[in-house]
Amino acid sequence: MRNKFIYTLALCAFAIVSCDETTENIGASLTDSNDHLKIMTDTFIVSSRSIVADSVLARSSNGYLGRIKDPETGATITGNFMAQFHILENYKFPADDEIATKDGNGIYADSCELRLYYNDFYGDSLAVMKMTAYEMSRPMEEGSVYYSNYDPMDNGYIDANGFKVSKTYTLANMKDNAEMRHSSSYVPHISIPLNKEYTDKNGKKYKNYGTYIMQKYKENPSYFKNSYNFIHEVCPGFYFKIDNGIGSMANIYLSQLNVFYKVKKGDKEVVATASFSGTEEVIQKTVISNDRNSIKILAEDNSCTYLRTPAGIFTELTLPVEEIAKGHERDTLNTAKIILRKINTDVGEKHSLVNATRLLLIQKDSLYSFFEKNKLNDNKRTFLSDAKSQTSKTESSYNNTYVFSNISSLVTFINKMKTEGEKRDSNWKASHPNWNRVVIVPVSVKMTAGTTYTPAQIIAIDNEMRLTSTKLVGGSANPYSPIEISVVYSKFSDK
Q1: What are the backbone dihedrals phi and psi of residue 483, each rounded to the nearest 5 degrees, phi first?
Q2: What whole-number distance in Å separates Cα of residue 481 and Cα of residue 300?
Q3: Residue 17 above 50 pLDDT?
Q4: Given pLDDT bands bounded at 50, 70 and 90, which one contains residue 450?
Q5: CA–CA separation, 84 vs 471, rounded Å?
Q6: Pairing between strand 198-199 and 205-206?
Q7: In whole angstroms, what is the distance from residue 362 CA to residue 370 CA?
Q8: Mean pLDDT, all residues of the chain
Q9: pLDDT tens per residue, range 295-345
């Protein structure tokens, strides 16, 4: 019983020690010679390399619109995106006799617009950009997998002769007066008017796109019963594509379709608005175009490794599983810690790309299924870098690093998988070349709002879709200290 108590105490101490940079000489402080609990520490070299990620699963509710010049490579990066619109269940327009905007052809909209709200951007807000909004000819479907290189235009979702509107804009939006832009209620956005004549797929003409929306409701209110009906019967969505310009990339957090009309209020007429928003309930998808040659050149730089998003480069680590297990077949692997160090870069540009915020460590063969199946990190086979490695200002040991505090369960799992595999097949490793390889992937993490009584919980992990570039110590020609995995073993000795 005493030994069990001491062993439990030792494990608690390991958890504390694993937060430090070193694990030297910890055993003597935990036990005395009568307990026979032996604690051992060691470090092993971890090899790394950059791997090209041609595309990532594009499942963010945000869209990215623009074209910028990569300050590190000089190549262009273009972001286009598609938005569908969500409606409330059993949405209703007012009855015809309440609507003031009507003529011999029935009710109509005074005007209609698409608004793209952005909360931040990369580049120059005064850069002149030109884009085109294309109405999609059919919707992208829930349950399908769409990666960041899946272009709706190339895959038949856009009718070349269909409805489209071009717009020249700057993110500074100088067309709104200064008083309006500096108002506390002003939200930066790109406005795209949809006021020209619209012809539907059956050849029927409408005063504008808003009039089409209103009259489709009058035709059959069930089209507005839910988002599925609305998307399939009325508006499949819009694709926003950059045509010209370079210098800005906007993070679109909300797309909105607004229909303006007038209703009767006593003896007055007042403006009413029907708004349909792009939300997580329906598909929002970014299409990213990178210069593949520039990405390839960066990935071939063996003096370091890279992390570049939204689709560009990941870092692959080869874990020294056999070396860690050798001579410790009967020991318990308590901790295995990896620290990845960033290399500060100065590209001499005002608008340098930011570093990735949070990283996921995952087995290479599970990379795509993890995101496709909406999985969360389990701290057994998938791990997030410690949040404090990015936010702590007081712990100097974590500055400029990404820390994976304990991946011992993954190392143990991989070693067991190899051992059992080789019992069945002596050539198991050759037929499983990725058996001890993991990939480091920048991710965005969504969490619940924590309270005094309930800590915040992770509810979603997605591929990072922001523009980021991170340079890490590593590579086969690494001029710095090597990447290491620090481990702690324990066992009860027989004596």
Answers
A1: -70, 135
A2: 20
A3: no
A4: confident
A5: 36
A6: antiparallel
A7: 9
A8: 88
A9: 999 999 999 999 999 888 999 999 999 999 999 999 999 999 999 999 987
